Known about the structure:
Pfam families: HTH_18 (PF12833)
Distance between the termini: 45 Å
Strand content: 15-25%
Largest sheet: 4 strands, antiparallel
InterPro entries: Homeodomain-like_sf, HTH-like, HTH_AraC, HTH_AraC-typ_CS, Tscrpt_reg_AraC-type_HTH
CATH topology of the largest domain: Arc Repressor Mutant, subunit A
Keywords: DNA-binding, Transcription, Transcription regulation
Structural class: alpha+beta
Strand order of the largest sheet: 1-6-3-4
Protein name: Helix-turn-helix transcriptional regulator
Amino acid sequence: xxxxxxYNEWLLFVVEDGSFEFECNGTKGIxxxxxxxxxxxxxxxxxxxxxPLSFHFFIFDWTNSDEEVKEVSSRIPRGKFQIQDxxxxxxxxxxxxxxxxxxxxLSVARRNLLFKDIWLTYWSGESEMMPSSSxxxxxxxLRRIRQQALGRFNLKTIADxxxxxxxxxxxxxxxxxxxxxxxxxxELRLQQARKLLKDxxxxxxxxxxxxxxxxxxxxxxxFKQKMAVSPSNYRKALRI
Length: 240
């Protein structure tokens, strides 16, 4: 209902259904079902509902030491991101729904634990999937790619943030990891797609959107090209 606000704490939106547009400190995008949006404290936040919305809204702060907070702040995914472990995330959301409006102390404690579980699930997926390089700049590029791969990914934007031209970035990345940045993006997207096909009953259009593809037919073509099977047949094979 608020198009503009400013908080002294951190904010986390967890979207269950619908979509909204957001902007904060130059970071902007559209968040839809399954997306999380993290926004830092003390900044102006603009948002606009595009469809009717169902979401969880957390206001929080870090309780770690100043040194730990500084380290975490350099790694957390400002703006939109997603949880890789789709089945665990859906289970957490179901539990959140069951206690979302209960004021008793036990329900409040459960909400806090479920909030922490969202973060543990996110960091677990990050540590399992993040390759390493001897080049700190390329490690930073991996972190940024992973934050953006499931949304509207723009290679030039990341290259600009790293003070490289797109061609320089592609060359350095390929030399370090043996694949182009776009190949890595596709790898991340299809990894997420396989999890969603296995663990959820979401329609193809929703899976395509949650994997960064605006068009489900293009998503299906890329999936079949890389996996040698269509997404629908992949899902059927898993359920035989």
